[in-house]
Specification:
Blueprint (H helix, E strand, L loop, with lengths): L14 E2 L5 H9 L1 H11 L9 H7 L6 E6 L5 E8 L7 E6 L10 H8 L5 E5 L16 H20 L4 E7 L3 H7 L5 E7 L6 H11 L2 H10 L2 H12 L4 E2 L24 E5 L9 H13 L3 E4 L12 H13 L2
Parallel strand pairs: 4-5, 4-6, 6-7, 7-9, 9-10
Antiparallel strand pairs: 1-8, 2-3, 3-5
Helix pairs in contact: 2-9, 7-9
């Protein structure tokens, strides 16, 4: 497959509704170098740090039917369709990849999903990955674009396949996709793989491993890494930004603080990793509690293999079957 053309950059109009103080703005300016580093660590595709040439050399692709659409805020989102020719099912899985590589380089996961009792897998590429347009990450633009892209993909698929139902599946940062769209009436359930509910743990790991020793020493003289990571996360991905082109949505700092109404009785299967170096186990338990409080049925299955862990094909088939039994 040909490599994607240079990704276009789409400006996103945003409004600050946070009433941030002048001292907070001053802190943001001081943290600016770390916010750029955090953006690159958390979303390397949007930051232009995905090496597609290396991915093509080191990993097999699963050639898809690729297309793209333009959202209501002007961003372009790419998606890939993989059809299960032997299935008579009316269920489609929409997959949101993690931050290290786009959909077409996730052959193992795609193949396992296609072996389930489903009609197709549709992979949507996150902002800035593959053919999805990049956006500036400041002033909440990245989170607004992510929500616009996720909504547009789901709307596109429900229009294209009006007789189908949908299971949402997200790996790592793909959690924000399924958790934010679970209330859609055509969505019957979700699968969360190494579910991530906040950027703080990723940013803390980056601060502990990627910052110069002198800077680390200076940080620890002022505070601990956890407290500093919260400050950097808030500066990188601010809350309470809106866009006039996307009414009804305000940024949450890429934090899953709650689950929207309309998910009562829907089945969610979570596959966290026991030895995940980025996600504390408490975060997974908090996510389960929020889902159950909203009325979801939650199945939790621990895997092994760190943050790159994937459920086995058998586990995925069981997860899909469990969701289908709820219907």
């Amino acid at each position: 497959m040909e490599l994607p053309q240079t990704t276009q950059v789409t400006e996103v109009e945003t409004c600050d509704n946070s009433h941030t103080s002048s001292s907070a703005h001053a802190l943001h300016r001081l943290l600016l170098p770390l916010t750029h580093l955090s953006h690159r660590s958390f979303f390397p595709g949007n930051a232009g740090h995905i090496n597609y040439d290396r991915l093509c050399r080191g990993r097999d692709e699963l050639p898809p039917k690729t297309d793209k659409i333009t959202t209501q805020i002007g961003t372009v989102v790419g998606f890939h369709e993989y059809t299960n020719e032997n299935s008579q099912s009316n269920v489609i899985v929409i997959l949101a990849h993690g931050n290290t590589r786009p959909t077409r380089f996730m052959k193992d996961l795609l193949s396992s999903l296609l072996d389930c009792n489903i009609k197709a897998v549709v992979g949507r590429d996150f902002v800035g990955y593959d053919t999805s347009s990049q956006v500036p990450f400041h002033n909440g633009a990245l989170e607004i674009a992510a929500h616009a892209n996720d909504t547009a993909i789901l709307d596109k698929m429900t229009d294209k396949y009006p007789d189908c139902q949908f299971i949402l599946c997200g790996r790592s940062v793909g959690t924000f996709f399924w958790a934010g769209q679970l209330q859609h009436p055509k969505v019957i359930g979700a699968i969360g793989i190494v579910p991530l509910t906040s950027p703080v743990a990723v940013i803390q790991n980056m601060l502990e491993t990627s910052t110069p020793a002198l800077l680390r020493h200076s940080i620890l003289r002022m505070t601990d890494f956890s407290g500093f990571a919260h400050a950097v996360a808030a500066a990188t991905f601010p809350s309470n930004y809106t866009s006039p082109k996307l009414p009804g949505f305000a940024t949450k700092g890429f934090e899953i603080e709650g689950i929207d109404p309309g998910v009562q009785g829907k089945q969610v299967v979570l596959f966290p990793s026991q030895d995940d170096e980025l996600i504390p186990k408490g975060n997974v338990e908090d996510l389960r509690c929020r889902l159950e409080k909203a009325g979801c049925k939650v199945e939790l299955q621990w895997t092994k293999g760190g943050h790159r862990a994937l459920p086995s094909p058998f586990q995925l088939r069981e997860a899909v079957d469990l969701i289908l039994r709820k219907e």
